[in-house]
Design goal:
The complex is a heterodimer of chains A (726) and B (299).
Chain A lengths: L2 H15 L1 H24 L9 H16 L4 H19 L5 H9 L4 H33 L4 H32 L3 H29 L8 H8 L4 H13 L4 H28 L14 H23 L4 H24 L9 H19 L15 E7 L10 E4 L6 E4 L2 H8 L6 H19 L8 E10 L4 E9 L5 H6 L3 H7 L10 E8 L2 E7 L5 H16 L3 H6 L4 E7 H12 L3 H7 L3 E4 L4 H9 L13 E7 L1 H7 L2 H10 L6 E4 L2 H8 L3 E2 H4 L12 E7 L4 E6 L6 H11 L1
Antiparallel strand pairs in A: 1-4, 2-3, 4-5, 6-7, 6-8, 8-9, 10-11, 10-13, 12-14, 13-14
Chain B lengths: L1 E10 L2 E11 L5 E4 L6 H8 L7 E6 L2 E2 L4 H4 L2 E4 L11 H11 L5 H10 L13 H14 L4 E5 L7 H18 L2 E6 L2 H5 L4 E6 L2 E7 H6 L1 E7 L13 E8 L2 E7 L2 H9 L5 E6 L2 H11 L4 H4 L2
Parallel strand pairs in B: 3-8, 3-9, 6-7, 7-8
Antiparallel strand pairs in B: 1-2, 1-4, 4-5, 9-10, 11-13, 11-14, 12-13
The chains are: A alpha+beta (726), B alpha/beta (299).
Amino acid sequence: MTSKSLFFNLMREDSKRRLWTSVLTFLAFFFSIPVAMAMMLSDFDLASADPIAAARAYMLNQVKGLVGYNNVGIIVFIALLSVIMGVTSFSYLHSRQKVDLYHGIPVRREKLFLANYFNGILIPAVCYAVNLLLGALIAALYGNPIGTVLGTGAAAYVFFMLHYAAMYSVTVLAMILTGNILIGILGTGVLHFYFPILIAVIRSCYSTFFKHSYRSGFETFNFLVDKCSVFMLFVSNLSRFNSYLDIKSEILRLAVVLAVTVVITALSLLLYKKRESEAAGKAMAFKLSQPVIQIPVVILASLGGGLFFYSMGESLGKAIFGILCGMLLSHCIIEIIYHFEFRKLFTHKIQMFACAAAAAIVLSIFNFDLVGYDSYIPEADSIESVAISFPNMDTWVSYGSIEGEGRNLHWRYKDKNSYLFENVKLTDPEPVLALVRTAIGLDQEVVNEESEPKDYYYYFNVKYYLKNGKEITRSYRMNTNTEQQEVLDLYTNEDYLQVVYPLYTQAPEDTVAVRFKQGDHTSMISRKSGGTGEVTDRLLAVYKEEFANLSADTMKSETPIATIQFMTSAQENAYSKYLEDSLWNYGDIADRNFYPVYPSFTKTIELLRDNGADIELQPDLSSIVELAVNVYQFVEEDYSIEQYDRVYNERSYAHNDFIINEEEQIREVMASAISEEYSDMNPLWGYEQGRIHLQATYKNGSRISYSISRSEIPEFLWQEIQNSNR
Amino acid sequence: MIKAENLTKQFDSIMAVDHINAEIREGCVFGLIGTNGAGKSTFLRLASGILKPDEGRITIDGEDIFENVNVKRRFFYISDDQYYFNNATPEDMMEYYKKIYEGFDTERFYKLLGNFGLEKRRKINTFSKGMKKQLSVIYGICANTDYLFCDETFDGLDPVMRQAVKSIFANDMAERNLTPIIASHNLRELEDICDHVGLLHKGGILLSRDLDDMKLNIHKIQCVLSEGTEPEELRGLDVVKVERRGRLCTITVRGVRDEIAGQLEAYKPVFYEIIPLSLEEIFISETEVAGYDIKKLIF
């Protein structure tokens, strides 16, 4: 018998023995694709759809979702099958009886390994392909283009099968490393989840112990998380492929998955050949792998236990108790599993205590900041440049770009901090360092006072680019009561502003239209395609000039009254498409980056008015029908807990609004009211905590949120609200 | 020829096979006897390439067995608890073995299956222990290999089936020089089939001899010696053991029958009779000489 035919014979015989897994796999895909497709399409009523083209496009989109990356059934089954098939492919290794048969026959072990291994991939591959074809045929019966459906399905097929192979290889590796099915499954869990959990615990340590860690090291850990576990790689790739990844990146990512699969499979084959037949029935097949798995797990459990109990009361005693609990539980359970005997639970005591000590050292590093993480401020002369970002300021600016084609056109979001860190390069670090010193000093004061005063804070993140090439990121907070000249200065620093506000660098040739928005009303002021290119250019020039000249003093005394948008050609294109076909992604692109118009932008306002904009510098009080004030805003400040509970329990939610509809009273309240939407656009607006929020309803039905300072609440409102609360 | 040289296998702290040296010639039946845990199964698993020796080597015609497909094609291993696929029928398993062993004799398989009264399409998991043993022997025989390793195969077979299997072995030995290697803890079971016997104890081999050699070279004399003659004074006889019941002595002696008779007659005994030893008795004598109490080892 030739070697090749023996290989296929082995595969065929293995398939016969795993008939139940083939049936299970087929059913899983059958219900996930053809059945789901038939159910979904039978609900479509194209006959009454108007316009029919849009309905067809929507249907095709849904079909593509079902055969593509969005099919939850496939996602779940791919993950589950990788474990089931991995276990069934190599469960014989865990039975002496079966090992005697398989290893006693004249077949080389690698051939046996490869036959079983590939069968575990072939079964789902065939079942998936057959059901994908069935699904595509059903879709075609409903008038969907089969080529498009199959194209999407084939791309998803390659994606899912590659990830399946990678996850399946992990299960195979776990089965080879262990000698018992249950422990093999647990081992698969360890291989998939140990490092993600470790990363989560270390992240928690950052957020629990360090005041100045930037997003608890989120960037670093996020970078690592899909590189430390095949399952997390699957989750990460799924999310990326769903969010319109370009083809090159897709191919690269799939190549990485393939490479990971090959490496794990090669390792599994090597270990399979090294594995002794007598390992069947033991917990771990290799003596060396026992401590290799046990020590990291016990350290992690001790660390997690310590962190968990510490977070319950921020006490070192509780942390030590947690470490001991984690250590004992994990060590004893693993020892029992390794020996299949309860009495062996305290075997390797020295190793157990060494693991706990390692966890204690790690927690100490965080708790006592032994590496000086929190107090770190680089020397000014060691800094090449510095970037700063205020995450809660200018949240209305969108960073990113337009990507995709056709109906897949979408806004590729870019995180603000990442964008600013990449682009802000302040070569004079002193102002930022001064701000950082103040923030660190403030935190130390709070620590020394033991209990934190009821102050309010804003946060800022700093990235230091050091001359030695290192990049260090920290996050700080600053008391809102402390006015920092350094912050005010930043808002007149052109290097900083050019990055924060992309409009600064937007050229006239990139600007094709201008839209104006006040309240609920949005109007197109000028459009190059509509013959008003000159107005567009003039508005851009005037606005940019006034925006650039906006002083910190003006920003402290004014809040915007309206917004203006300078549309790029891509935005205008999306806007036009949105008018034809209300896809959310078109609207999302079209509505980004409206800039604030301050009352002092007189030239802009004049030009807008000249071109038809109906701008009101003050709200038109005569058109306000009523003001609604939620009374609970007063409760928290002015009532005891008992009173609060009484009020809370006695009132239904519907009755929580106090309504003002007297014209004079409306005028009195609105005299000091500012629009919430627009005040949020002013980064230097001295936001006062505890402002009272209210909602104005206009005659045209629009509703606008305003706020007033507590100190400016009219007397009648105080009286009325206090009366209504009693 | 199968040759074990210094063969050693240890499971954690247990020495299962301890520096064994043995030779198994082709065309004879080799019996491997010993108590439970003596190392019989481990020896067979080493011989069939399932286990890898820790030390030493085990070869067939000079070639190592472990991971050597060409050598492994020359034997069929029947384990003490043979595995059959879930829900498989004799026919299903036959299909599997047919793909593995090129010389598998399908015709003979069906014939033997009929002879043993086993249904080809009945699920094996509904078979009795003895039926499964019979089936394993059928697969082993039909695989047409040079060697057949049987681990406790006769255990569970009724006397009729045992005889039937023995006759099949005898037939195949005569026809195609089959070499069965049979491990058992029951010495009596092997007596009428083995040509050569190896006794394992605590992982080591106590002795390994041809049964004929042993039978021809050791005898039991029942005699009444002349007045004043003690068995210990019988010079020229290689006395292994002496038992007395009054004047009746039972003396176990090494040597061929005629020489023993000649030596004994020189002392003019009142009466004597030379009786052949059973395999059991031979083993008792041999192992006692080696310093072991065989009754504790085997029975």
